[in-house]
Amino acid sequence: MKKGFFYQTALGTFYIAEEYAAITDMKFVTATIENEDEIVETLLIREAFMQLKEYLNGLRQLFTLPLRPQGTVFQNEVWQILKTIPYGETRSYGQIATAICNPHASQAVAMANNKNPILFYIPSHRLIAANGSLNGYTGGAAMKKYLLEFEQLHKNK
Prior knowledge:
Elements: E1 3-9, E2 12-19, E3 22-28, E4 38-39, H1 43-56, H2 73-82, E5 91-92, H3 93-99, H4 106-114, E6 127-128, H5 141-154
Parallel strand pairs: 1-4, 5-6
Antiparallel strand pairs: 1-2, 2-3
Helix pairs in contact: 3-4
Catalytic activity: a 6-O-methyl-2'-deoxyguanosine in DNA + L-cysteinyl-[protein] = S-methyl-L-cysteinyl-[protein] + a 2'-deoxyguanosine in DNA; a 4-O-methyl-thymidine in DNA + L-cysteinyl-[protein] = a thymidine in DNA + S-methyl-L-cysteinyl-[protein]
InterPro entries: MethylDNA_cys_MeTrfase_DNA-bd, MethylDNA_cys_MeTrfase_DNAb, MethylG_MeTrfase_N, MGMT_N_sf, WH-like_DNA-bd_sf
Protein name: methylated-DNA--[protein]-cysteine S-methyltransferase
């Protein structure tokens, strides 16, 4: 059974969950989350939150957590590539499609990105359209813009 916990930050409330000793979910809480997870703060969930706090304070650029996103084979392939995008950098949907040897799959990459269940730790905010637009982020375009500018500001620290 999954275990999860809620945390308040300056960016809002987040929900972090784990199962089988790996993080499975990290979401913005914009409404009541209805689930059957046990609400408890485990050591791994607490560590995930501590790393998130360090990131949000400009002190961490790389997460070191066991992750187990739940999705299709294609989604997991996309999410694995997203984890390789360096802090403070972006890639286009087309670049990710090419990286997974499917250069015509830009739209499918965008859909997989939209289903990313582990925000921040799998940095879907670093994925942008070829024309530079910031649409398609679960937290909204304003949050995506903030995160990208934040990373640029803290990139060389």
